[in-house]
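Backbone-to-sequence.
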């Protein structure tokens, strides 16, 4: 049996997405900021994660329905002490999750002009168990497609693809022709489009070629629904190929134009 690589989204996707974004921002990003002053994250199977932090190589991640903290202590692979702890997200509060990691939520924590509101840190969270996995897999599809574009097109300059809590997306910007730059990414959804989407976002106003490709105010998108409408046998690899071709087409048009 083939498992759909784009499972159906819950009916209250917008609410679930907002809950996950609050957890991302006020738990994982704050955990990272306390360690190294940064707050961007990485896509990961089952959700998203901090990089390894500090001398104990702490990593904090959301995997499915759980918050997981991992540590690896020691400087010799033969004598490393490792620990893994988990805390269920559904039914917990932001305060519970932060306290599990050893700190209190900061109402003033800031990740940009669109920082998600902390809300009531003691209110129980209600998170569908498949939401984080869906977002994590979506970000990973985007990440692999971005890697392919960078490798095959060898742009003059590429930034680092990172998960940004402010906009709830995995994004990168690349130089594709002289000073022309373009954003590529995977969004979890926002006020433009409720469902997740992949995007090509030129830094200028140029929209060369047939207008049908440029279907968003900021450039072009392929939506979660677009991929879900493909044959049931379509695999994650097929989706990566589709998104790679989409990114590549956007760059080709901009370069040719």
């Amino acid at each position: 049996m083939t498992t759909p690589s784009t499972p159906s989204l819950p009916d209250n996707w917008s609410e679930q997405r907002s809950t996950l974004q609050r957890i991302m921002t006020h738990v994982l990003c704050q955990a990272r900021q306390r360690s190294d002053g940064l707050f961007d994250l990485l896509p990961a199977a089952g959700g998203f994660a901090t990089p390894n932090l500090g001398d104990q190589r702490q990593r904090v991640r959301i995997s499915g329905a759980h918050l997981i903290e991992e540590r690896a202590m020691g400087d010799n692979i033969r004598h490393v002490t490792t620990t893994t702890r988990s805390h269920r997200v559904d039914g917990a509060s932001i305060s519970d999750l932060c306290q599990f990691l050893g700190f209190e939520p900061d109402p003033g924590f800031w990740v940009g002009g669109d920082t998600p509101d902390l809300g009531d840190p003691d209110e129980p969270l209600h998170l569908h168990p498949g939401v984080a996995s869906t977002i994590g897999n979506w970000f990973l599809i985007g990440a692999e497609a971005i890697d392919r574009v960078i490798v095959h097109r060898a742009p003059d300059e590429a930034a680092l693809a990172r998960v940004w809590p402010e906009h709830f997306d995995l994004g990168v910007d690349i130089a594709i022709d002289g000073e022309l730059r373009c954003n590529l990414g995977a969004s979890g959804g926002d006020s433009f489009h409720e469902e997740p989407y992949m995007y090509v976002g030129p830094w200028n106003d140029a929209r060369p070629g047939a207008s049908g490709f440029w279907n968003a105010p900021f450039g072009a998108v392929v939506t979660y629904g677009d991929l879900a409408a493909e044959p049931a046998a379509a695999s994650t690899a097929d989706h990566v190929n589709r998104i790679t071709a989409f990114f590549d087409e956007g760059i080709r048009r901009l370069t040719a134009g």
